[in-house]
Design brief:
Elements lengths: L1 H20 L4 H18 L12 H12 L6 H10 L5 H24 L12 H13 L1
Helix pairs in contact: 1-2, 1-6, 2-4, 3-4, 5-6
């Protein structure tokens, strides 16, 4: 429960920062990952080799950020990597799928109703927060 609250508060903070500044501060992200990793180790979640899989979605997004010259932000990938300290790989993939769906619907709304262009940047971390909220409810 403590990990859930810490991750939720962190995602809220990073989401607000992403909306305001279009970037995420590295030091709070590292601190949150260290706390999440410590809590996961203390609870015994990191006993087997599958812990490596928790960091796979964030690593893939980090690679895409580099390949697309940051069309996908590095901050989004780092937040996903940080989420690996708190959640299982299945939970992270569920959050990602929900976040991608919600952001796609929002992008479609912006294109059709608000007449924005394809190049309009959207903060993704708030969608990760919403995806995490949906995952917690379901």
């Amino acid at each position: 429960m403590i990990r859930t609250i810490i991750l939720l508060v962190g995602l809220i903070g990073f989401g607000l920062e992403d909306l305001r500044k279009k970037q995420v501060s590295l030091l709070p992200l590292i601190l949150m990952a260290a706390v999440g990793g410590g809590l996961s180790i203390a609870s015994g979640d990191w006993k087997d080799w599958t812990v490596v899989l928790r960091f796979l979605p964030g690593s893939v997004i980090l690679l895409f950020a580099w390949l697309t010259k940051e069309s996908i932000g590095y901050g989004d990938a780092l937040v996903l990597l940080c989420m690996g300290c708190f959640l299982s790989v299945v939970q992270i993939l569920n959050v990602c799928m929900c976040a991608l769906t919600l952001s796609g619907v929002w992008a479609l709304f912006l294109l059709l109703v608000r007449k924005k262009s394809r190049k309009t940047e959207i903060a993704f971390i708030p969608f990760l927060l919403m995806g995490y909220g949906v995952m917690m409810v379901l």
